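Appendix B, record 7
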Amino acid sequence: MNAVPSARPSGPGRPKDLEKRAAILDAAKRLFPKHGYEGTSMDAIAAEAGVSKLTVYSHFGDKDSLFVEAVRCKCEERLSSGMFAVEPGVPVRQQLLGIARAFFALITSDEAIGMHRTLVASAQQSPKLAQPFWEAGPAQVQRGFAALLQAKVEAHELDIPDTRRAATQFFALLKGECHARMEFGCCNFGEREIEEHLNATVDMFLRAYAPR
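Structure tokens (predicted):
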């Protein structure tokens, strides 16, 4: 009688490796906004994550790659790609307002404000970070939103000749004065004022691109 082969065990250390990667990313997302790019060392990230510096390098290769991945993950946490999926039966205004709220919450979070200040402060010392940061964060969000707008155009719910440009306009309008003043740390806005700003932005966008 042949013995029944036992199930093949999973590779050693795999779940632990994933946990370490997550811990490193969490540490990076905390330290980069707090201390800046130049002020955050790989040693500090390793200590914060409870791993060795060699483990940090084995997962992310270098500090630039870790920074960019931290940016990408933060965007995905606050503004997932699923938010740009077409939702049949949902009014355009309702979906745009949901995206507006999520985007504004992302860009005005302490982490995002800190990350943006970090990038600006590091522009001269680390100019090569700018393009990867843009691709991992703003460009990814704009592409997802432009694809949604294109779907709405094809469904005759919007009339937009250039969806890529319209996407950049939408997010620029959402930032407005509110975001600029928050970056300078000179003003805090109440929930009511923010909600009025978001509603006004969505209404302006729809007046521009409603079907003729």
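Remarks on this record: The CA atoms of residues 34 and 128 lie 21 Å apart. The radius of gyration is 21 Å.
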